Amino acid sequence: MKLHLVTFGNRSTRAGRDFFANASALRDAALAGGVDHAHALSSDVYAGTSFEARNAELLREPRGAGYWVWKPWVIRRALDQIGPEDVLLYSDAGKRKITVPFPRPDRLAQLARLVPEGMIAGMQLYNAPNGDWTKGDAFSLMEGDEPEFHTAHQIQVGWSAWTQSPAAYALLDQWQRFNEDRRIVSDDENVLDLPNDPGFVEHRHDQSIYTLLVFKMNLPFLDFSRRPARRFVRQVRARDGVSLRKIWGGEAVLKALENHFAQQGESEPLKAVARSVVRRIRQ
């Protein structure tokens, strides 16, 4: 099994940030940490493509370099290029350059191969009910207006693990389809009858779409909210420069959990980790 990483960053933004520099730093850190192949991409990768032509209006939007419409396209393109036994990791470039060592995310990759769906959608956020961060039109147009999809907490889209599985490709294709619908992905006002939830704060664009799809397709994600994971989350958060919103933060929690279960006498500690923190909306 080879481990691949892909990240993306615009070379310049209206705010003067160079996200491509952050993406390049992440690529270099991943290679130094033992990832077999890592790529930092920019908008150059889709220049002149049908994707760019189809989404020209969205790609002009400053937020998320086009409301992050490029994200499933970038992941799918990279997934097509890996081997059948390999794992692809996606990670956001982030607003700041990586300043901590990048550990090879073997446990995250192994979990992606361990589950039957062949992917880990990422980590479920705390205190982020999906209805507070998803506008009504997304629920309507994606046929996701179910109570549990409003109350369950969002899945972050900052990092994830993928194999060339049917479930992975199905999610990416649906994510791309709905990301390209301006009514669903943008900050535009609702045009249909379903209002925003009473606690609505703002729409989270590609993350709202991704969360609804992960729930509707009953795909696996990581839930660190229960014991014993919660204890290790606190320990990881106390480290300088380490965040659970980054792939290395998630890997640090998985490593601590694996060590915990090994010390408890589990013969296959990673499978114990999977039983503890890999969750689906409908178990």
Automatic annotation (TrEMBL):
Name under which the protein is recorded: Capsular polysaccharide synthesis protein
Taxonomic lineage of the native organism: Bacteria, Pseudomonadati, Pseudomonadota, Alphaproteobacteria, Rhodobacterales
